[in-house]
Amino acid sequence: MTFPEADLVPISALQHYMFCPRQCALIHVEQIWVESGLTADGRIQHERVHAGGAETRRDVKRVSALPIRCLRVGLVGKADVVEFHRQADGGWTPYPVEHKRGRRKQEDWDRVQLCAQALCLEEMLGVSVPEGALFYGKEQRREVVAIGDALRRKTEEVAAAVHRMLMEGRTPPPEYAPKCDSCSLVNICLPRGVGGGKGRVARYLTRVLEEP
Questions:
Q1: DSSP-derived pairing of the beta strands 54-57 and 60-70
Q2: In this predicted structure, what is the pLDDT of residue 57?
Q3: Torsion angle, alpha carbons of 178, 97, 134, 110, to 10
Q4: Among 40, 57, 110, 152, which residue's CB has the most CB atoms within a 10 Å radius?
Q5: pLDDT grade, residue 211 (50/70/90)?
Q6: Residue 130's CB: how many other CB atoms inside 10 A?
Q7: What DSSP element (H or E) covers 183?
Q8: DSSP string, 60-97
């Protein structure tokens, strides 16, 4: 199965979905976006990286802001940086490097996004992409990521879940978690106001109606 161009979803949606399915739906179904200081910092960092163009140093070619897609999984996006490493036989192996403003995470949110880029590069170039890296701005260092079978399966499962969400056009209800406090959409999502269990919506509406 391959997806038509019109049905491709942004690679960034996978990271949004893993962070919070409701956040993903608000952004990609309802087309809502609010920029915060954190998201602005991230956007500025990506703009700087994307302005890097292309350069060659010894056996590494570096390309910034490379458009990529994978029709098999239904993804489209732009890779921050793809390094092409020269091999002994004269060929070149792509090595995606995704830039993040913060610190490395235990969760696989960023690794799935990187793996999605690898899947795109493999389909486009007809080569294997066994490894990539995440560069974290706060730490100024790379986390090397092996693009193995388990990560590939997780990435394809998340992509399928995002496709289902967009096809259904349904936004999940809010449910508060500590990570909500760092989300730029928290004041639109209102996880403390309407999420978090049976009767919460009724109590929220009652409190709003009772306010002078």
A1: antiparallel
A2: 82
A3: 30
A4: 110
A5: low
A6: 12
A7: none
A8: EEEEEEEEEEETTTTEEEEEEEEEEEEPTTS-EEEEEE
